[in-house]
Structures are given as C-alpha cells and as structure tokens.
Amino acid sequence: MYNLEFKLQVSTESDLTAPAKIIKELRKLLASPLSYRTIKISPNTKMQALAKKIESEFDCSTRSGVLDGCYGSRSGAQFEGLTVWMHAKEATDRYLDDEYGEQVNPWHLLNEHGKLLENVDGDAFMEMLDSSDVEYKSDNTYNYQHSNSDDAGFIFDFQFDSFQIGNKHFLAVMFHCGGDPRGNYTSKKIWQFDSEDELYSVLFPYKMLSSDNE
Length: 214
Prior knowledge:
By secondary structure, the protein is an alpha+beta fold. The chain folds into two domains: 2-90, no CATH class; 94-209, no CATH class. The protein contains five helices and twelve strands. The strands form three sheets. A five-stranded antiparallel beta sheet has the order 7-12-11-10-8, sandwiched between helices. A hairpin with a 3-residue loop joins strand 5 and strand 6 (101-104). Helix 3 packs antiparallel against helix 5. The two termini are 34 Å apart.
C-alpha cells in the first residue's frame, strides 16, 4: 500500500546531505502528511547510500529521479533526486491541520476497528463476489469528505466496496495515490469487521483532537 509520495529533490541551495538528517525531515512530513512533500537535498548527497538507509528505516520503495507534479498528473519534467513511496502505515494516525482541521489516516482506522485479511487477493475476492449472490455497495470517500462537520477528514481518500457475509461486515479498499480521484489507486485489500458500527467508524471517523469535539 505504497501511496504516499515524497520527493527528495537535489538543489544547489541546500546543504542537506547526511541520511540521518534527511530521514529526520521525512519524519516531520509524515507527522503532517498534508504539508508540502518535497525536501531539498544537496548535490553532494550519495543517493545509493541514502536510498538504502531510507529503505531500512521505513516500509517504502525508492527510485532514482523526481518527477514534477503528483501521481497521475505529471508535466513530464524530471529532476535529479530520489522519490520515496511510503506505506500508508508510516504516516501519523491523526493530527490537526491548520487548513483542513482534524485529519485521520485510513490505514490506522481500518486496523483499529477491523482485521486485515492479509492472505486474501482483494481483486480476486471481488471477482468471486460478482459471480455470487452477495450484494455490495461501491463508493469513494472523496464524494462526501467534509460533508459533516462532526467527522474528521482523511489524510488521503480511498475507494471502497462494502458488503456483508453472514454476521461479518467487510470493506474492500484501494488507497488513493494522488492526482485525479477517478484513478491512481493501490491494489485492493480486504478488511473484516465484527459489526456494522465498527465499519462505519472507519467511513465516518469521529474527532478526538479538535476543540469543538470537547
């Protein structure tokens, strides 16, 4: 579920070279993921050593170079540096954003209220449902973000299919990677919930940090 893109872009105006200091800056961005996700690093940075160190510290993937724009919306321009795709779990669980208010990380919400079926292929599972009598509803959190001031917002949106089998409730989830919300998603994963209330606690997360929730 590598859906959070961070850019380590080479700049002659930066003297940031030490992997430890760059990782410290990455952690700051992961603590407020709606902030700017580009870190300027020195041309003297040893890219291979930096990539190796970052991959040892985080669940992520790295690639050489930095592309302009966000995933699914690129200008074609490319710059020297390193692109880091972070697993959703590396970002904070929730925080207060000055512009958007209280924001939560869907990955942590899903695992707090439900159980990830780790060995289940989400796409194959949904294909099986299509050939069965199980009905499911498809939607995207993008369609109702901020529609209720009592709910927290999401650090990133996700597309989901909700359904019930027996007394268990399920969400098939794809996390958005940026750009146009009509595309650019991760592979599909399945979470199981013991009750409908647990499922809706993910789709409509309550506020915990906001002063207006006191």
